[in-house]
């Protein structure tokens, strides 16, 4: 009996997804290996290739290796070392799973320490390996509870109706459990978006729709928040706008394909259930307070589900509130389609300003959460699903989605540029004061 249990445990362990380790890259302990592993970790933390490449080049200069040539793509980092004999190019694939918020914060802290202290490359590589294999801060129960809060929070932002609230709670618990269990099995993770979208749509159409008269898509969309590629599409638009054509185009194709998989799952569920996509009866809308309560729930959900670092919840809430308030301001000034431009233009300097405080977490954490509220991933998902079902007005929804993406990318570029210019001006002012004091 004991042998049978051990065999079953070994079979289950074989199904679990394990991190892929490049033995050749792991064997290196020099500066090129350190820079390559840093780049792979930053890509796994959902950072744009242009930002990753700039950081890695500055890091190479800091370690007295300005001769290294760095090339960054969305899925790998290439480091060419001309001093080796013969000259060789090392490849560092970014094929590990996306980093949690606590892991992203640890990577950013490690980068700052490398710049400040010039830590030996071998020690950096050891710490990066420890960060990748580190477990989440919260257990499965709190993670599922966090996903439920995420679902309810986004539901209050996207579709704040009274009858939909219990639906969001149930769907959040179901999808959160599916995500937690399927993340341990590599095979299921490949078809997880389609399978999850099909399952929740079938449940809504067969069990909930007769009781809750609301649009199926707007009931389903909040529960699929972790699968919506809004952040990917926004980063793709930023990369295309900044001249990173290959990276932006490949990321854009991936984001659209992810939306297509989700739309297919929903359309398949609707087809099997035989229910129409759009309901002519709308639920009772909650007041203007509902989105603000939703943002509070979203911040708590992110903190638990993505294992945010200790003490970062209030800063995540700060970033979400600034992003949403800036979007509302943009809606009043330039309309809903361009509100993302104003939101990104305001939230990036606001987050970088808060990041200068000692108690604040890394800016990457706050910006990642803020981008989730800015990006119109749910809008694109609804548009593609309506197009698959032949609903009128679906094409207009898709066009508005891509228009919003372009507006957000322009706002992000302007916000990042203003932040860099302001930082340079402040540093120049301080250097001028120091020089004046020295001459005096």
Global morphology: globular
- What is the residue-averaged pLDDT? 76
Q: Work out the radius of gyration.
A: 23 Å
Distance between the termini: 86 Å
Helix count equals: 18
Helix-strand makeup class: mainly alpha
Q: Uncertain spans, ≥5 residues at pLDDT below 50?
A: 17-28, 376-381
How many separate domains make up the residues? 2
Strand order of the main beta sheet, please?
Answer: 1-2-3
In percent terms, what proportion of residues is strand?
under 5%
How many strand segments? 3
Largest sheet: 3 strands, antiparallel
Helix content: over 70%
| SSE pattern, N- to C-terminal | HHHHEEEHHHHHHHHHHHHHH
Give a quick summary of the entry.
By secondary structure, this protein is mostly helical. It contains 18 helices and 3 strands.
Q: What can you see in these coordinates?
A:
There is one protein chain. With 440 residues, the chain is mainly α. It folds into two domains: 22-133, no CATH class; 141-424, no CATH class. Helices cover 70% and strands 4% of the residues. It has a three-stranded antiparallel sheet. Strand 1 (69-73) and strand 2 form a beta hairpin. Helix 7 crosses helix 8 and helix 15 runs parallel beside helix 18 (394-439). The N and C termini lie far apart (86 Å).
How would you describe this structure in keywords?
mainly alpha; 70% helix; globular; Threonine/serine exporter family protein
